[in-house]
């Protein structure tokens, strides 16, 4: 494995799992690490043997980023990554993979409760529609089954019959 293959594998495994700025920060970190180790006289083969599979590294990065090790600053607009603690500004309205960034806050749309919100809203709308429908049905049946209604109907029919006879 060479640097290009390692970086490509790392980027591919991270895409859609964490926001793009975090991916770029980690790519820079590992690029810098590899360069530093090569300057110390180590071979690429030794470095990549030590680092291991980029997909495993990516999974660790994603899990660490999603855990408590990633935090929002007081303004809620910046985040700190797990490896260097560097602040990077997020753009508003940015969408990457299962994350949606709104007003500088990133939401993981892969979480069950985020996916459940539209379903709950739909169920509430259906409940309201059925409630109105069955309420109107109940009102209609209450009127039709009321003895006062039938007295009024009978009186109207009799008046109509008497008017026609004149």
Report on the architecture of this protein.
Helices cover 63% and strands 11% of the residues. By secondary structure, it is mainly alpha-helical. Strand 5 (99-102) and strand 6 form a beta hairpin. It has a 3-stranded antiparallel β-sheet, with no helix packed on it. It is built from 6 helices and 6 strands.
Task: Set down the secondary structure blueprint.
Layout lengths: L2 H12 L5 H20 L4 H8 L2 H13 L4 E2 L5 E3 L6 E3 L5 E2 L2 E4 L2 E4 L3 H33 L2 H19 L1
Antiparallel strand pairs: 1-2, 2-3, 4-5, 5-6
Helix pairs in contact: 1-2, 1-4
What characteristics describe this protein?
single chain; three-stranded antiparallel sheet; mainly alpha
Radius of gyration: 33 Å
Low-confidence stretches: 68-96
Judged by helices, strands and strand pairing, the structural class is mainly alpha
Question: Which percent range describes the beta-strand content?
Answer: 5-15%
Strand order of the largest sheet: 1-2-3
Largest sheet: 3 strands, antiparallel
Order of helices and strands: HHHHEEEEEEHH
Mean pLDDT value: 78
What is the helical fraction, as a range of percent? 55-70%
Q: Number of helical segments?
A: 6
How far apart are the termini? 107 Å
Number of strands: 6
Overall, the morphology is: rod-shaped
């Amino acid at each position: 494995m060479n640097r290009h293959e390692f970086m490509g594998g790392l980027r591919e495994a991270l895409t859609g799992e964490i926001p793009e700025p975090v991916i770029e920060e980690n790519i820079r970190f590992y690029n810098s690490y590899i360069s530093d180790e090569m300057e110390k006289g180590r071979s690429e083969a030794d470095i990549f043997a030590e680092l291991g599979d980029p997909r495993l590294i990516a999974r660790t990065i994603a899990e660490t980023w999603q855990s408590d090790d990633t935090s929002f600053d007081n303004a809620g607009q910046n985040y700190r990554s797990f490896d260097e603690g560097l602040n990077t500004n997020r753009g508003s309205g940015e969408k990457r993979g299962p994350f949606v960034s709104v007003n500088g806050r990133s939401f993981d749309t892969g979480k069950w409760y985020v996916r459940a919100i539209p379903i709950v809203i739909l169920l509430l709308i259906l409940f309201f529609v059925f409630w109105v429908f069955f309420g109107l049905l109940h009102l209609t049946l209450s009127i039709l089954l009321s003895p006062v209604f039938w007295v009024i109907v009978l009186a109207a029919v009799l008046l109509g019959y008497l008017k026609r006879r004149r």
